[in-house]
Design a protein that fits this description.
By secondary structure, the protein is mostly beta strands. Helices cover 8% and strands 43% of the residues.
Amino acid sequence: AYRIDYGQGGRATTRFHLLVDGTPETGSTYGDIWVPRGCLYFSTPCFANSISNLSSKESPITVRQIGWHTGWRREESRMVGTFRAMPIEDAKRRDGY
């Protein structure tokens, strides 16, 4: 499922999430980087208020975690990577999957 959030000036953002098992905290192939079990959150601009017109620029992938960075214990979004929206045919050509 996805949703489109509408902002000022006609801006629109498509948001969706994926439930993932996560990666092991130790033995990861990326050193100290690991993805916790739970949801990965994706957001990208869309044009003409339609998911058929997604931005092809890099957009953030985040997780939600409890943090103290503001001095208050609260849920925060933490960036874990980026993605690009593109037609599946282009993705297959680019990545070979």
